[in-house]
């Protein structure tokens, strides 16, 4: 009785890799095995086709990124802010200049050479206009250096934008190529996983018929599990690369897809 119990336990333990692999395989088939590579692209991209034929060319993606990248948008806003500061400095000296006006009416007038019949000559009647200028000599002398300093700051911001654009282009190209490579690797891993599955199923049949050693059956099971792990790992890598591509470009995946004819 003890020997039978031991045999049953050992049999169940030996079947654990097969049971695990079977559950994984059923789950993958239920989700459309080999048809989707992540939430970011399940609607727009087909894993069975080369991504290079589905995505826009790199230069087109970079042109979109130049207008929609959050990094470049922030830098452009900084440049516009510095341009507005320059315009403000050009007219700062006018803060001490002002005009005044008023209207008064009365009946007292200066009688000179019989001008009492002309109300406009009255000191109490009519409109009054005034001009006031209070300009600091320091502000006046420092106006031009301050403007030059602000212009230099603007040029620095523009140069910084060019640097950011180059960094964006380099990083975008790296992600673009990594996405294409990871998708090709995923397709190879899927083929390898299918071969490993056939080998595992064959080994499982032979093991049940006592035509294969337990160690060989265990090796086939491990190879299949490793192949499946590679597929899932590369599937995640493709999805992450696509997410990075969308983030850097600043547009949704639908705008990065090549129009299909």
Automatic annotation (TrEMBL):
One of its GO terms (molecular function) is porin activity. SUPFAM superfamilies: Outer membrane efflux proteins (OEP). Its main location: membrane. The keyword Transmembrane helix applies. It is found in: Cell outer membrane. The keyword Membrane applies. GO terms for cellular component: cell outer membrane; efflux pump complex. It comes from the Bacteria. Keywords: Cell outer membrane, Membrane, Transmembrane, Transmembrane beta strand, Transmembrane helix. InterPro entries: TolC-like. The chain crosses the membrane at residues 7-30. This is Transporter. It comes from Spirosoma pollinicola.
């Amino acid at each position: 009785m003890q020997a039978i119990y031991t045999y049953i336990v050992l049999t169940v333990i030996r079947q654990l890799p097969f049971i695990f692999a079977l559950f994984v395989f059923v789950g993958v088939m239920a989700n459309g095995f080999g048809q989707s590579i992540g939430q970011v692209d399940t609607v727009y991209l087909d894993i069975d086709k080369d991504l290079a034929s589905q995505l826009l060319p790199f230069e087109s993606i970079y042109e979109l990124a130049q207008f929609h990248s959050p990094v470049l948008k922030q830098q452009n806003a900084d440049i516009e802010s510095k341009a507005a500061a320059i315009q403000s400095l050009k007219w700062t000296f006018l803060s001490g200049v002002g005009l005044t006006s008023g209207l008064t009416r009365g009946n007292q007038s200066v009688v000179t050479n019989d001008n009492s019949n002309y109300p406009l000559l009255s000191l109490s009647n009519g409109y009054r206009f005034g001009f006031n200028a209070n300009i600091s000599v320091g502000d006046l002398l420092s106006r031009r250096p301050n403007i030059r300093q602000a212009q230099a700051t603007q040029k620095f911001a523009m140069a910084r934008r060019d640097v950011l654009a180059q960094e964006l282009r380099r990083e975008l190209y790296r992600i673009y190529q990594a996405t294409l490579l990871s998708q090709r690797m995923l397709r190879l891993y899927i083929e390898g996983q299918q071969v490993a599955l056939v080998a595992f199923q064959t080994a499982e049949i032979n093991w049940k018929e006592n035509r294969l050693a337990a160690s060989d059956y265990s090796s086939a099971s491990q190879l299949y599990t490793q192949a499946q792990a590679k597929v899932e790992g590369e599937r995640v890598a493709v999805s992450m690369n696509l997410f990075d591509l969308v983030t850097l470009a600043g547009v949704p995946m639908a705008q990065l897809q090549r129009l299909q004819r």
